Amino acid sequence: MENENFFNQVYEAVKLIPKGKVSTYGEIARFLGKPYYARQVGWALHKNPYPIKVPCHRVVFSDGSLSSAFAFGGANEQYRLLADEGVTFIANKVDLKRCLYKLI
DNA sequence: AGCATGACGTGAA
DNA sequence: GTTCACGCCATGC
């Protein structure tokens, strides 16, 4: 199915994010050629049975906010993971200006 | 087949 | 700067 392929693309894109960097749902969606699929990207990570192989914690909102329903233990845990990788935070938000990884 | 929901994004108040 | 509302597409019921 083409759709599953899209999901797979999402996982691959997320796996491409290096340590200490983050990406956004919109960026990934755009990277896959579907700029309006940000929601489906998030959905793919939420619904999909894919394990820790995909560093979902490196994917945040376009404004740097963390997902409220993070499945790894909560936004607090995600925050800790990112900070541990060297990602800088500003006002509880990821410093995209410095840590945003552009797949394109 | 149609309605409601959702890990989003952007614009406006 | 923060908060609200609308719009986008796919999935679930």
Describe the structure.
The radius of gyration is 13 Å and the shape is globular. The chain has helices at 2-15, 25-31, 38-47, 75-84, 96-99; strands at 23-24, 59-60, 89-90, 93-94. It has a single domain (2-99), classed as Winged helix-like DNA-binding domain superfamily/Winged helix DNA-binding domain (Arc Repressor Mutant, subunit A). It is mainly alpha-helical and 104 residues long. It has 5 helices and 4 strands; from the N terminus they run αβααβαββα. The two termini are 25 Å apart. The protein binds a DNA duplex (13 and 13 nucleotides) through α2, α3 and β2.
Tag the structure with descriptive keywords.
single chain, DNA-binding, Arc Repressor Mutant, subunit A, 104 residues, mainly alpha, two-stranded parallel sheet, two-stranded antiparallel ribbon
Number of strands: 4
Helix segment tally:
5
Mean pLDDT: 89
Name the CATH homologous superfamily. Winged helix-like DNA-binding domain superfamily/Winged helix DNA-binding domain
Q: How does the overall form come out from the CA principal axes?
A: globular
Ranges where pLDDT stays below 50 over 5 or more residues in a row are none
CATH topology: Arc Repressor Mutant, subunit A
Would you tell me the structural class of the helices and strands? mainly alpha
Whole-number total of structural domains: 1
The portion of residues assigned to helices is 40-55%
